[in-house]
Specification:
The complex is a heterotetramer of chains A (175), B (483), C (161) and D (114).
Chain A: H1 2-20, H2 24-44, H3 48-69, H4 82-103, H5 115-128, H6 133-141, H7 143-163
Helix pairs in contact in A: 1-2, 2-3, 5-6, 6-7
Chain C: H1 11-33, H2 42-60, H3 62-68, H4 71-91, H5 123-147
Helix pairs in contact in C: 1-2, 2-3, 2-5, 4-5
Chain D: H1 2-20, H2 24-45, H3 70-101
Helix pairs in contact in D: 1-2, 2-3
The chains are: A mainly alpha (175), B mainly alpha (483), C mainly alpha (161), D mainly alpha (114).
Chain lengths: 175, 483, 161, 114
């Protein structure tokens, strides 16, 4: 699909800007552009659930990243390190070569095997009574994943609370 | 039955979060009571010598997620629960001086639940998710006392293991696109029906990088010394004792042996990785003067032993690897608890400043002596038997140089721990430590229990006990999972 | 509706916020209630509800937001949501298995009337529990980040925002 | 195949940022790009040519054979949440590091050695 390819190229350019730019705020905004591109890709590939979620998550993480960048930090390292850069570029190249050899072996884009998911699609509505099959899988067939997700949200929330606390020792002088 | 291992800790975590703020005794009680129940239960399951399965939500395997408790899972489960119990008992006095104890115990139980779930689940994506949860809980617990070093270590740990786990996720994606199912036994069936070496080799590399980062095999070990040395001591004991094993080594060997299937090439790779880890870990540990950092490097070295034993692929080698894994989680958590006790009473971890502590702290001194001899492989203790089996398996498999390397690394470990004993616990008592006292009795209790285990675990090799404990696990690795 | 505090953004933002917050909140509620019927879902709905509260905090400053929702209530909601999800799973034990949809009758297709709001057993309840945790959890995260001010460390680094 | 390849290029860009960049925020951004790339990979492997949304609109004509893969969507749903949680924790840790060290530069954040 040509639309997907154009969007992917757009995302790659935005990601390159986000990595290359020396302005941190600009980098955060560019990463927002990557996320929005991803949301549109989700919409084009017939998964509106994810498009909505991605959009919302993008807003939230953008707000929080801007909060972190808002601490005006002028540190920006622009130096040339040829050895490290060339080693990592070679590593990336090797990774890409082997990965592209590997992706030739999986089914082509647009023709998934869908052995397991066809079972869900065939019987899911009848067995659970939920027209939205994604919700049916998430909340009924694989509800253990949902439990895991809720634990993640819980952990992140209480973790942020515990890291952000001011007073650490019970007695001030005891250190 | 198997779901209790996940429900109870999560339930405890949520109750602590709701009510623990008002009374600290609720969080203390939940903190030790739930691991205690679960460790009794897990030992009972281990002795039952059966394969337990449980379909969550009542859906049969390809549709839903299945919990599978076979020999390997149950062995790991028993180890994890017992060590978590000890760390929980130890934490109660240790954590007294910090605020937000209830959140500490809530996160502790979340980590416990995630380890149990990762051990029991039979679904490859679910395995990934629970590993991720255990990771998030441990990043936060590492930076629990918000010191600069801890934040730095936690950041490094979080970034490296997230990258590794994203690699794993990419591998799962390729596997799903190829096999079109997520259940591990199903994937193994599909892969054995239509093998595809090009794709599988790439996936294996991704899995080794990802789980190897969690297990701290040498090229990917950069996070471990920082995170282990700067975390609170009970958390270090948990990280080194069980977390890198249950989330790293277990996941690696489960996926490699049971999903993808071992071949001779893969065994070579694992043996080489294990040898490099062994040698590099012990050499780096040689120059350390920080007590916990030294222990952390030894963790890398001992993980190398475990991989060497398992990578040999013979029944004796796998037995040795698993036995060393059990032993290592016992004595390494004991050593970290000792280091924590020293830090608790003196406030420093620098070996050069310590000295002569065994007179003032007899329990810490004697238990650390037992643990040191155990890790170095002195005959009556458990470390000797497992190292002996691994070396014997090397010789039996005809790889003499591997056995030689293992012996040399063992000698280096011995010398390194002689250094620890000499500088920390023997020698002259320095002037500033005249007023030292022994640590509180709960901390002593958990150290004493662990040291008794160190002495007694040689008995696990008696054939009658071995047939319950190790033989099912070895047969799972050799013959694959059956559901 | 919401009194003008001294802090916060300009008048234009405040005026617009006053009208849009309710819409955003209702949008989130719609997603949560209909997560099992149409696209959307509990997670997106929960985050949208959290965003509406964050919207108030950003526009009016945190004092106004704290008048409506205290920090203790938020923490209570996190625990309650997670605990009620687990409880729903445990109730499933009485009918068969952990996390079993206990409204299901064996041999009968379509739990409840298809396409109606109260169909498909425990799923709307699960949606509610999840969205409660997610909304309050992300609110708590945002609060921790926004209340948190760098400082207390070195003198030269404790810059205010 | 082109789609898969572009997606892997995005993955490599994120990895490059993590390996090379020395600013903590840039590292977090690199991690976020890798998350996006993996999510993208999953949605690409689940797409079916001229497929429809996996949501039934009526009881009359169920046509499950032309719907796209719903399993990958649940996987992405979980993964997005994981990524969000990790990003938050990392951002907060980075902010605390800024408070303690006074910089986001990773070369100055080096009290741990060895």
């Amino acid at each position: 699909m040509i639309q997907i390819q154009v969007l992917l190229v757009f995302m790659i350019i935005a990601a390159a800007i986000a990595i290359g730019t020396s302005d941190l705020l600009g980098a955060v905004v560019s990463i927002g552009a990557v996320g929005l591109g991803l949301a549109i890709v989700f919409l084009l590939l017939q998964s509106p659930d994810l498009a909505i979620l991605q959009l919302v998550v993008e807003i939230l993480s953008l707000v929080i990243l801007i909060r972190a960048v808002g601490i005006k930090d002028t540190v920006n390292v622009r130096e040339r390190r040829f050895i490290a850069t060339s080693i990592s570029v070679i590593l990336m190249g090797l990774f890409l070569v082997f990965a592209s050899l590997a992706i030739l072996e999986i089914p082509k884009f647009g023709n998934p095997a869908m052995k397991l998911s066809f079972l869900y699609l065939k019987d899911g509505f009848r067995q659970t009574g939920v027209p939205n099959i994604v919700s049916a899988i998430m909340l009924d067939y694989r509800s253990f994943d949902m439990l895991a997700q809720i634990v993640i949200a819980f952990t992140a929330a209480i973790g942020v609370v515990v890291i952000a606390r001011k007073k650490i020792y019970v007695n001030k002088d005891k250190k | 039955m198997l779901t209790l291992f996940i429900i109870l800790p999560l339930c405890g975590a949520f109750i602590i979060f709701l009510a623990g703020k008002y009374s600290k005794h609720i969080s203390y009680f939940m903190g030790w009571f739930i691991p205690a129940i679960l460790s009794i239960l897990s030992i009972k399951l281990l002795l039952a010598k059966e394969v337990f399965t449980y379909n969550i939500g009542g859906w049969a395997p390809p549709l839903g997620i299945t919990l599978v408790g076979d020999g390997l899972s149950l062995l790991f489960l028993a180890v994890v629960n017992v060590v978590v119990l000890m760390a929980a008992i130890y934490s109660i006095p240790y954590i007294e001086k910090y605020t937000s104890k209830w959140i500490y115990f809530a996160l502790f139980l979340v980590m416990h639940a995630s380890m149990n779930a990762a051990l029991l689940t039979g679904d490859i994506f679910n395995l990934f998710v629970w590993i991720e949860i255990g990771g998030i809980a441990s990043y936060i617990l590492v930076s629990y006392v918000v010191e600069p070093e801890q934040l730095e270590a936690s950041f490094k740990y979080a970034v490296l293991s997230s990258v590794g786990l994203l690699m794993v996720l990419l591998g799962i994606g390729l596997l799903y696109a190829y096999a079109s199912t997520l259940n591990m036994a199903d994937i193994a069936r599909v892969l054995s029906a239509k093998p595809n070496p090009k794709l599988i080799n790439f996936i294996v590399v991704l899995f080794i990088v990802g789980f190897g980062t969690k297990a701290a095999i040498v090229p990917f070990h950069a996070w471990l010394p920082d995170a282990h040395s700067s975390a609170p001591s009970p958390i270090s004991a948990l990280l080194s004792g069980v977390l890198i094993k249950s989330l790293g080594v277990y996941a690696l060997i489960r996926v490699l042996f049971n999903v993808i299937g071992m071949n001779a090439q893969l065994k070579e790779v694992i043996i080489v990785l294990g040898c490099i880890s062994m040698v590099v870990g012990v050499l780096l540990a040689f120059y350390q003067w920080d007590f916990k950092r030294l222990l952390a490097y030894h963790s890398i070295s001992q993980i190398g032993y475990i991989l060497l034993g398992i990578g040999l692929g013979t029944p004796l080698g796998i037995l040795g690897g698993l036995f060393h894994l059990v032993n290592h989680s016992v004595f390494k958590s004991l050593l970290f608890l000792n280091a924590g006790a020293v830090e608790y009473s003196t406030g420093t971890r620098d070996l050069k400043q310590l000295g002569g502590l065994s007179g003032k702290m007899p329990i810490t001194g004697s238990t650390s002596l037992i643990a040191s001899m155990s890790i170095a492989g002195i005959p009556p203790f458990n470390g000797f038997w497992s190292k002996f089996i691994i070396i014997f398996a090397c010789i039996q498999a005809g790889k003499f140089w591997l056995g030689f390397i293992a012996v040399v690394v063992s000698l280096l470990t011995l010398s390194s721990f002689l250094k620890v004993q000499k500088y920390a616990f023997f020698g002259e008592l320095k002037e500033q430590w005249k007023e030292l006292k022994e640590v509180p009795w709960l901390m002593c209790l958990s150290m004493i229990i662990l040291s008794l285990m160190c002495i007694g675990f040689g008995l696990l090799l008696v054939p009658a006990i071995r047939s319950f404990v190790f033989d099912p696990a070895v047969s799972v690795l050799l013959n694959g999972i059956k559901i | 509706m919401i009194k003008k505090p001294a802090q916060g953004m300009t008048l234009i933002v405040k005026t617009i916020t006053r009208y849009t917050v309710v819409l955003i909140l209702m949008f989130g509620m719609y997603f949560i209630m209909n997560g099992h019927l149409v696209h959307g879902g509990c997670f997106a709905g929960g985050i949208i509800v959290a965003l509406s509260i964050i919207h108030i905090m950003l526009a009016f400053g945190k004092d106004v937001a704290f008048k409506r929702i205290t920090e203790r209530a938020i923490k209570l909601c996190i625990g309650l949501g997670a605990f009620s999800f687990l409880l729903l799973g445990i109730i499933g034990f009485t009918k068969g298995a952990f996390l079993y949809n206990f409204f299901r009758k064996p041999g009968v297709d379509y739990i409840g009337q298809p396409f109606s709001l109260f169909s498909s057993g425990i799923m709307p309840l699960m949606n509610l529990a999840i969205s409660l945790t997610v909304a309050s959890g992300f609110c708590a995260i945002f609060l921790a980040l926004i209340v948190y001010k760098p400082g207390g460390g070195d003198k030269n680094t404790g810059r205010k925002l | 195949m082109t789609e898969y390849f572009l997606c892997l290029v995005l993955f490599c860009l994120g990895l490059y940022a993590i390996l090379i960049k020395r600013n903590l925020i840039k590292i977090i951004i690199g991690l976020a790009i890798m998350e996006y790339a993996v999510n993208l990979f999953f949605i690409l492997i689940g797409y079916k040519n001229s497929g429809t949304v996996p949501i039934f609109s009526s009881l009359k004509e169920p046509r499950p054979e032309i719907m796209v893969d719903p399993v990958v969507q649940t996987i992405i749903l979980t993964n997005v949440v994981i990524g969000l949680a990790i990003t938050f924790v990392l951002v907060l840790i980075a902010m605390r590091i800024y408070e303690k060290y006074g910089t986001y530069d990773i070369r100055k954040v080096n009290r741990l050695k060895g």
